[in-house]
């Protein structure tokens, strides 16, 4: 009997980058067999010899801009970018227009993501109404909606009022959801556009001090401790944040943190050209911070990589540095950058890549069907990486509506070739498959 049409055979993969080559058979939504020379039996065969098989990536920090700024990204275009980047789940931040501070918006985001069907788009709910930091949003209602909101964040803004943050943390632990903080003391960043240091001083750019981030990280660690809650730090950018994470963990505080690919690769020397493509919040820091972030990620002090994929219209990035919007694309380049900054220098092996791109984010946010071991009987959320393929980034060719990549013309050595979402191929040979999986 022929296998059902939904069967896929991945031929000759390296599980977590380790030999010998093996086949992986996927039937329906599940991994049905792992072993040498499996019988295709009518399954679609993907010739994946020598490619590295990892669990599908999970991005805790994505801006998909729908609703409100569909001229820069939509759930459909962002889902395509995510699938091409090897992601099987992303968390869409709440700073949309309208803000995702109600179940109407969070349910819409979830439903639209399911309609597109390329990646699970989990809505992030706002912590406060309108991201204004004054009044808690209806977290329980959003958590109970169809979108089942698991993570709340005012990202783009810091919840700077310590009493509001404390209440949000207390509330979150009874709901079993995660609070993610954009750590930025706003009274220290008025007018700030670049990392406060010698480069910004020389270029005449207003500086964003490390203490703006670190003071909130320290404060929120203490608030989480007192509330008996968990807190997650978005886009950690300084060496001091890594030290504070170590301290807080040592105290038994439930605190986790992510780092972005751009903070692992770029430093503020990029600002010499005044090109606003390099403007981002938090800003690109100094080489010593980059080194500390890499080491922190290798040691597990920083838990995971999150893209902070932030599409912006050309007119908002091509203007003067001080008025341009902060943010850069990240979904399609994340894996390549993690390999170049962490695997190539020997800071992480491929098991480590699985940990920081998939397993830890899934655990932190409580996804049960993602970041799972590659074993028979598990749901097939998988990513195949070719570690010997040189490719050069071109913003025009990325799937996002906006093209604001700071990695233009950079060449990388690894690329996602295939992504599988619950047994269905969403990316084949680096091209998005249609909804029917063809
Ligand atoms: N990171 C950014 O520079 N921008 C993000 C907001 C954010 O993540 O803080 C955006 O929404 O554009
Ligand atoms: Zn942010």
| Attached small molecules | N-carbamoyl-L-aspartate, zinc ion
- Tell me the radius of gyration: 21 Å
What would you call the structural class? alpha/beta
Number of strands: 21
Which quaternary structure do these chains form?
single chain
Question: How would you describe the overall organization of this protein?
Answer:
Its EC number is 3.5.2.3. Pathway: Pyrimidine metabolism; UMP biosynthesis via de novo pathway; (S)-dihydroorotate from bicarbonate: step 3/3. 57% of the residues are buried. It contains twelve helices and 21 strands. It has helices at 75-84, 103-116, 139-144, 162-175, 198-203, 210-227, 239-250, 261-265, 287-299, 314-317, 334-343, 350-365, and strands at 8-15, 18-27, 30-35, 44-47, 52-55, 57-62, 87-92, 120-125, 151-153, 178-181, 194-195, 207-208, 231-233, 255-259, 304-305, 382-386, 391-392, 411-412, 415-421, 424-428, 431-432. The strands form four sheets. Strands 1, 2, 3, 4, 5, 16, 19, 20 and 21 form a nine-stranded mixed β-sheet that branches. It has an eight-stranded parallel β-sheet with strand order 6-7-8-9-10-13-14-15. Strands 11-12 form a two-stranded parallel ribbon. The protein is α/β, with parallel strands linked by helices and 438 residues long. It is globular and about 65 Å long. β2 (18-27) and β3 form a beta hairpin. α4 (162-175) crosses α6 (210-227) and α6 (210-227) runs parallel beside α7 (239-250). The longest helix has 18 residues, at 210-227. Residues 63, 95, 155-156, 182, 280-281, 308, 310, 326-327 line the site of N-carbamoyl-L-aspartate (NCD). The site of zinc ion (ZN) has 6 residues, from loops.
